[in-house]
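Severity: low
Component: inverse-folding endpoint
Summary: output formatting inconsistent between runs
Steps to reproduce: submit the following structure tokens with default settings.
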């Protein structure tokens, strides 16, 4: 479903960001550690100088260290001091000094000192530029690089999404301008492919509704025009009638035309209800073992008592989930249609197998040509040959198709073993949520 697809893609983006954060943070730490671990040339020179001073101090008694340090500072012009170890604070600084490394600190005046521990009591200090400023610049550069990599990764993920969204937007706008063609070319691997397919199905549905309403309007106007013309003619005959018998004959003909118009309106309204997007099914559990034969017997008696109409059920048909009103309407339309064209036999078979309901209606009539087997499910389509008496309005099979589609199934036509047409309607035993 589209919602699940979008949730999956956003979860993928979240995991991608987390993974990128982990990898880039690890790389940032490694770069900083590598940089800090590598002493700069200036720092190495400072280490050599401090080691030389330390060697000088080790050659004289400890009580002369301050005097010697002052002399070296005056002779070299450098700022050398001798601090007591107790004057140094900071656990990291003390740990570096104890490990024989050069540490850096700032005094209260903000001046930076390079420190080297001589023994447990004294620390030699040389005023120097701490490398923190240089490292700070590096840290800033690495931080900028870090966010640049993050932005690049997100852009790589989002760019195809925004591109496809623009394509979808243009296609929707094109469709909305009454072109009724949805031509968004979204690839299956796109993050919004499921959304695009939903739009495509919606566009097909809207296009079908528009075409159906257009056909309905044309057909209704055409079907009503003929009886209205007859009624107008009968009214004129009644006005000119010379006796009551002629008037009654005209009134009887008018009544027949009114019945025909009423049947057309009822059939059209019934089909229009199935075309509504907000229609809801009245789902229930029904026993097809008894229901199917009863409907078949009713249609046989009402349509053609002279034909054989048998009903067979197979599988677990005692608890079929469906909207029984729609299914009954669909089955009656199929049986009346089969009885109209059958020579002497109609057979209806209902089977429940592997989670699928299948309804088969076979007849031994002339059948339906291959080229017309899809067209007959359109509204107001009839296949009577020229000169044949017209019966019905061409909505029976269109209602069948919509009723099955509302149950999440499909209907098709093929050659029947009886020699005529076989109409097969299938829908899932467990109906999908609508």
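Observed output (run 2 of 3):
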């Amino acid at each position: 479903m589209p919602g699940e697809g979008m949730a999956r893609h956003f979860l993928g983006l979240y995991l991608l960001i987390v993974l990128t954060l982990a990898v880039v943070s690890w790389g940032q730490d490694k770069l900083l550690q590598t940089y800090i671990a590598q002493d700069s040339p200036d720092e190495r020179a400072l280490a050599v100088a401090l080691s030389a001073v330390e060697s000088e101090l080790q050659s004289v008694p400890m009580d002369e260290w301050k005097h010697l340090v002052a002399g070296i500072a005056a002779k070299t012009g450098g700022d050398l001091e001798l601090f007591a170890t107790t004057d140094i604070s900071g656990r990291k600084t003390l740990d570096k000094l104890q490990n024989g490394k050069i540490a850096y600190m700032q005094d209260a005046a903000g001046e930076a000192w390079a420190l080297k521990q001589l023994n447990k009591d004294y620390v030699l200090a040389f005023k120097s530029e701490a490398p923190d400023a240089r490292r700070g610049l590096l840290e800033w550069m690495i931080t900028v690089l870090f966010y640049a990599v993050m932005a690049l990764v997100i852009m790589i993920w989002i760019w195809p999404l925004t591109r496809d969204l623009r394509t979808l937007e243009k296609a929707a706008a094109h469709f909305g301008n009454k072109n009724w063609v949805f031509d968004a070319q979204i690839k299956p691997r796109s993050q919004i492919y499921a959304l695009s397919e939903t739009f495509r199905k919606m566009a097909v549905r809207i296009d079908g509704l528009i075409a159906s309403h257009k056909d309905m309007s044309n057909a209704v106007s055409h079907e009503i025009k003929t009886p209205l013309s007859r009624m107008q003619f009968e009214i004129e005959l009644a006005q000119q009638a010379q006796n009551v018998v002629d008037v009654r004959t005209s009134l009887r003909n008018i009544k027949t035309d009114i019945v025909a118009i009423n049947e057309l309106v009822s059939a059209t309204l019934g089909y229009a209800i199935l075309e509504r997007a907000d229609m809801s099914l009245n789902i229930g559990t029904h026993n097809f073992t008894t229901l199917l034969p009863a409907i078949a017997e009713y249609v046989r008696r009402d349509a053609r008592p002279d034909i054989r109409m048998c009903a067979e059920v197979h599988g677990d048909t005692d608890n079929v989930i469906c909207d029984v009103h729609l299914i009954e309407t669909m089955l009656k339309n199929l049986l009346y249609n089969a009885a109209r064209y059958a020579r002497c036999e109609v057979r209806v078979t209902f089977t429940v197998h592997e989670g699928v309901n299948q309804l088969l209606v076979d007849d031994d009539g002339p059948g339906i040509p291959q080229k017309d087997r899809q067209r007959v499910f359109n509204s107001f389509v009839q296949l009577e040959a020229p000169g044949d008496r017209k019966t019905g309005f061409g909505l029976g099979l269109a209602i069948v198709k919509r009723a099955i589609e509302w149950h999440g199934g499909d209907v098709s036509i093929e050659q029947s073993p009886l020699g005529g047409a076989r109409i097969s309607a299938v829908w899932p035993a467990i109906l999908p949520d609508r």
